[in-house]
Amino acid sequence: MKTYFECIPCFVRQALDAVRLATDDEYVHEDVLRSILRAASEMDLRESPPVMGQHIHRMIRHLTGEKDPYRSIKDRFNEFALRLYPELRKKVERSTEPIETAVRLAIAGNIIDSGVNSEIDETNVHEAIEHALTEPLRADLKEFMKALDRAGSILYLGDNAGEIVFDRLLIEQMPLEKITFVVKAGPIINDACLADARKTGMTELVEVIDNGSDAPGTILNSCSERFRERFEKADLIIAKGQGNYETLSDVDKDIFFVLKAKCPVIAKQIGCEVGSLVFMRSSAQDWPALKQNTQRR
User: Fold this and answer.
1) What's the domain count of the chain?
2) Strands of 207-210's sheet in order across
3) Single pTM value for the model
4) What does the pLDDT look like over 229-260, one tens digit per residue?
5) 271 belongs to a structural domain
6) How far apart, in Å, are the Cα atoms of 93 and each of 110, 136, 276?
7) pLDDT at residue 49 in the model
8) Quick one: 238 and 125 in the same domain?
9) Least reliable range by pLDDT among 149-153, 167-171, 283-287
10) Are the beta carbons of 277 and 263 closer than 8 angstroms?
11) What's the confidence (pLDDT) of residue 283?
12) What range does the domain containing 31 cover?
């Protein structure tokens, strides 16, 4: 996915949010904003938005000396999601359609995105859970189950800390022996790293690797050779969140994108309303023509 003009104000807003987390020094704030504006004026709009996101957050870490500005936010949402987990797991177990309920809850967890909303709180998460359990879900879950059965190896590309607890609910409905969960190699916004996978029990559930990158998505040429080999060999990819959609939507690979459409640009690209629950297979030639499951629970 390319970068649209509407993405530019979001870069500036995200940079200001991040640098304010890292330092109170307004001179540094100004330095970062001026640098970001210069970079935005020169960026290649054919690149995906996470390319600029990676540049922004590397710059902030360099200028402030703060290696992980979002660490406290990640810890808070990991702990919050773990408190929710037992009750959410019961919802899945008691459901007449456990795989659908798990998909819905995995999408609900995608609300924990500090890149889109730096003021996300626990109330927002509870609201997202209620919304995900009652709103239409555009998905062909029978095709998903067939794809799971056919695949010998599955890469599940994670997104944010806290959110990965919601991913556990879906992964637990899948063949665990086939799955490798992927985190970021270095801090980027509130994306999950290996420490978050350990904290939330993901490393005890399935194999966990990092992708060798600190980009807010999966920019393949920024990832390690080891990860790219795993990506190429995987029979099926499950890609969580908007950043993974932005960076992989044009990749020739069988990918299921799992996300909440939080951005007007992405919603338009997919062909849905902002706030929609998205479970989309990349190999489909015509997304709007896909079978739609719009049952309300």
Assistant:
1) 2
2) 137-138, 277-281, 255-260, 236-240, 154-157, 179-183, 207-210
3) 0.92
4) 999 999 999 999 999 999 999 999 999 999 99
5) yes
6) 21, 21, 24
7) 93
8) yes
9) 283-287
10) no
11) 62
12) 7-64
